[in-house]
Every structure is written in C-alpha cells, then in structure tokens.
Write a structure and sequence with these properties.
single chain; 133 residues; alpha+beta; Lipocalin; 2 domains; 8-stranded antiparallel beta barrel; 49% strand
Length: 133
C-alpha cells in the first residue's frame, strides 16, 4: 500500500511541476533562451558582438562580452504591446557607455522564434538585438 501512495504522490508532484511550466508559457509567450547579435551604431560607426538572453517569468539575464559590446544585464522586465522594459539590478562601473547595458525601454518584434529589440538612447546611439530561440 505504501508503494501505491508513493507513486500517487510522485505522479501528483510531476503533474504539478508540468502544470506550472505550462502556466508560465501562457503568461509569458516570449520566455526562453535566445542567442544572436547585438549592434550599436554611433555617429562614428558600428560595433557588434554575440549575445545570449534568457527570459523567464518576468526575469531576464543577458550575457554580454568582456569588451561590453554588449555589457549584459540581469533583473526584471515588463511587456506591453510594442515595448519591453528592462530593469537592471546590477552595480556597474562608470567607465563605459551605460546604454550598452540591457536596461530601459526597447521596441520589439517577436514572431514566436525571432526576437528583435531596438532603441535610440540619449542621442548617443542606436542599440539593436537580433535574437533567435
């Protein structure tokens, strides 16, 4: 009898975990791991670097590069119909363009696989992420 109870409890646990995962997908259709390219365009030219972005349940982690193209970021985000706003929680040094941090409001397009984010920030440059799941 104890074996039957253990299997029933185990089954309920698995169903609960699976159910929570599905609820997260519905609540945040963009959740997932994205890889791609980041490009910043200044008046003097452009620079690009590879980037990884994880979006899950209202939180994000962006892995940048040692040259800070991009710098990365980590925190929370909110979605609107045409914009996504990132709220970075890191502490940064003051020796680079902070617009290279994934932070603030970006316009976006998303087709279920490809996610493109872009923003013109502080009359400094154009910041663009071209990503794919």
């Amino acid at each position: 009898m104890q074996t039957l109870q253990k299997w029933a409890l185990f089954s309920l646990l698995i169903l609960g975990i699976w159910g929570c995962h599905c609820d997260d997908e519905v609540a945040d259709p963009m959740h997932g791991r994205y890889t791609g390219m980041f490009t910043v365009t200044y008046g003097s030219g452009s620079q690009s670097g590879e980037v990884i972005l994880n979006l899950y349940a209202g939180r994000y982690t962006c892995f940048g590069n040692s040259n800070r193209i991009p710098a990365g970021g980590r925190g929370t985000y909110t979605l609107d119909e045409h914009t996504i706003t990132f709220f970075d929680e890191n502490v940064w040094t003051a020796d680079f363009d902070w617009n290279l941090i994934l932070n603030g409001e970006y316009e976006y397009t998303f087709d279920g696989q490809k996610l493109t984010l872009w923003a013109d920030k502080n009359d400094v440059g154009h910041y663009r992420y071209e990503l794919e799941k």
